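Following up on my earlier thread - several people asked me to post the actual chain instead of describing it. Fair enough. Here it is, all 303 residues.
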Amino acid sequence: MKKFLLCTTFAFAVLNSFAQNNCSDIFISEYVEGSGNNKAIELYNPTSLPILLDGSYSMGRERNGNALPMLVEISGIIQPYGVRVFALDKRDPNGTGLEAPLAAELLAAADSFLTPVYSQSYSPMYFDGDDAFFLVKNGDQILDIIGKSGEDPGGGWWALGDPSTRWWTANHTIIRKSSVLHGVNVNPEVFDPSLEWDSLPSDTFTELGEHLCNCAPVSVEEQVENTFSIFPNPVLEGAFAVKSSRMMESITLYSADGRLIEQQNLRSVTYSNVFFPKAEAGVYFIEVIYTDGRKAVQKIMAR
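Reply from S.P.:
Thanks for posting it. Predicted structure:
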């Protein structure tokens, strides 16, 4: 995995901020700073389309408030209203001390493992609760920040006016409140974790793997329960058929990175032939909208 150590001219003051709309791009939904090497970040996709991370997204911490975020590229796909869990790569069951393995529950919950080797100049996932943590897009667009860049709070951030909660971000798991609809894309003047985060005890891993957010439809199960079938899959020569037990209003085909490939209005049918001559070999996603407004998404392969 390619490494990124940001130089002084690429400190937080130079990172681009932008007007982030509600439910428009991924953000951090859970942060695990537990005992030993038990460190993990969960990212949430608040949109109705799958998001491909490869080549566009990176994340990591700054060290001791130095305002120099160390970023590591991340990869994978986050499905609509779904999450992906990234953990520190410590998996040797015989490891001891600084190489002690993650807790079994965290190992089971993780989808990806990052930065197994520590160095002082490059340690994006070795956060300790007092390190600002960044989620970045396209190298310089801030999507989310935990903490305040350029500040070392001396052990952890606390709820404003209540220093007894200092360890809110240290030795705890924190979970984004369901009312939060996008990340923090401007370095805050004051970071008060109680505004957007709920705090759970150290080494709590039971909430990893899903996130409740008001971005999602009333019921995610309602959105995906109306399955449809695709055949053949993988698609041959750009032609396939879609069949459903419910009346379909439209079909939209997206590339793995979210680009619109083809759209077809169906006018209340349960079966349709689809042809997309522009398709190249690879992974795509097809979204069906039913006449009652519900949606369903499935993966489709093209050869």
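The radius of gyration is 21 Å. That should answer part of your original question.
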